Amino acid sequence: MYSSCPVSGGTSLTGRWKVNGYTIANCHACSLVFVQNQVTTEELAAHYATVTDDAYDDANVECLNYYYEKLRGMIRSRYAKPGKLLDIGCSRGWFLDVMTGWERHGNEISTAYAATALERYGDRIVIGPFEDYPMRESYFDVITLQDVFDHIRDPIPTLEKCHRLLRPGGLIAIKVHNISCLYAKLTGKSFYAVVPPTHLFYYDGHTLDRALSNSGFQVVGSRFIGHLFKVKTVFLRLSRGDFNSISYRIYRTLNGTALGEVKFQKNLHDIITVLGVKQA
């Protein structure tokens, strides 16, 4: 169990919830919410070997691209000329597909997901935990972590490694769930993102800014970017991975129907994207 906060080092921790057998604590020094159990890399690898997410398949690329294209616009507002990009947690490589013109690299812990990206990007895709990713000092112009930073067991070492991989002035973009949004406050431990050990950390703008600042980055912007959702995906997320839940049964009923495929825009400020620049 962590005896101090992995971001601030604060030792005043309070157990907040028990979920899936894990203790979720709150740090009084910085307000970070995180899984207090120290999960090993091997445990995570075993967990992800059994996890599938129906929202991350080719049939949902249009919805995924809705966000990817907005992030591409944020990156291009700072880098009009393409450079070298690393997408950590690249899944099947869909964001890399969007970043045409760039030298595109990816890292993915799931062999099943990475197989598709490997077909398109070859040895620029590295399979395994990010801590094993080869070090290339000051190589990348941009590093992105989308729906992955809250999965990673060592946030500060991860950011410090990103700092070393980025060239001076390089950009990091992190997208995570926002534990301080109104929806999260109303639902508490039933918030759809509270699913340990899949998500180990629960950030908001303040705690993410602190983590970046402690790792040598200057925060230069943040946005609540909306998403394009299918009706059926709402119930998939509400099920929180429980295949016996009512929400999952509704998802299965809607899957393959015209109603389930209806798309709508969603922005509950439950997702936050923060940009940071590497300081020399």
Any chance you could write out the topology, listing elements then pairs?
Layout: E1 13-19, E2 22-27, E3 33-35, H1 41-48, H2 61-76, E4 84-88, H3 94-98, E5 103-108, H4 111-121, E6 125-127, E7 140-146, H5 155-165, E8 166-177, H6 182-187, E9 201-202, H7 205-213, E10 217-223, E11 227-230, H8 231-239, H9 246-254, E12 263-266, E13 271-278
Parallel strand pairs: 4-5, 4-7, 5-6, 7-8
Antiparallel strand pairs: 1-2, 2-3, 3-9, 8-13, 10-13, 11-12
Helix pairs in contact: 8-9
Task: Give a quick rundown of the structure.
The protein has 280 residues and is α/β, with parallel strands linked by helices. The protein has a domain at 41-225 and 269-278: Vaccinia Virus protein VP39 (Rossmann fold).
Largest sheet: 7 strands, mixed
CATH class of the domain at 41-225 and 269-278, named Alpha Beta
SS field, number of helical segments: 9
- The level of helicity is 25-40%
CATH superfamily of the domain at 41-225 and 269-278: Vaccinia Virus protein VP39
Task: Write down the CATH topology of the domain at 41-225 and 269-278.
Answer: Rossmann fold
Question: Which structural class fits the helix and strand makeup?
Answer: alpha/beta
The share of residues in extended strands comes to: 25-35%
Mean pLDDT: 94
Using DSSP, what is the number of strands? 13
Strand/helix succession: EEEHHEHEHEEHEHEHEEHHEE
Shape: globular
Strand order of the largest sheet: 6-5-4-7-8-13-10
Task: Please state the CA-atom Rg, rounded to the nearest Å.
Answer: 18 Å
* CATH architecture assignment name of the domain at 41-225 and 269-278: 3-Layer(aba) Sandwich
Regions with little confidence, pLDDT below 50 for 5+ residues: none
Euclidean distance between termini CA atoms:
34 Å
